[in-house]
Design goal:
Elements: E1 4-10, E2 19-24, E3 31-37, E4 42-49, E5 51-54, E6 57-60, E7 62-66, E8 69-75, E9 81-82, E10 86-91, H1 100-139
Antiparallel strand pairs: 1-8, 2-3, 3-4, 4-10, 5-6, 5-9, 7-8
Length: about 150
Amino acid sequence: MSDTLSFVFTLATIPSVTSQTTHPDPANSGLTDVVLMSTSEMVTLLRLLNFAEVDGGNVSVAFSLANGNLALQFPCFNSSLLYDPDLSVVLNTNTSGSGSDDLQLLALLSLLIIPLALVLVAVMVVVVGILMRRKINQEHSINYTPKDAVEL
């Protein structure tokens, strides 16, 4: 019986990986960066924690990457195992003045403007619905005071 738990992930990247490097993260000593280059424009960055929380304590984690398979090895645990890797795809920006930066900015703006427009339309529909309901309720309300009543 083994005293480790292994998770093996197959990383299928399109286009396929042309090179890979593994190095400690310069900004955080508890992380290891794995960089998978697919093309000059697409980079997959895996930021792997060197430690996992096992049964309330920090324990080192072993990992390896070979032939597109990422293997994470955790120690056995009794009640809990917490581990949170960061998997990112990074698109390199080309600063040669080809105009692609404008297209990327337009794409980012559309990701912001379209949801905001949908939220604005939804708010307007709710406000109009509330105003119409109030108007209908006022037209059908009953006045219980007699017309000839004298106010004291």
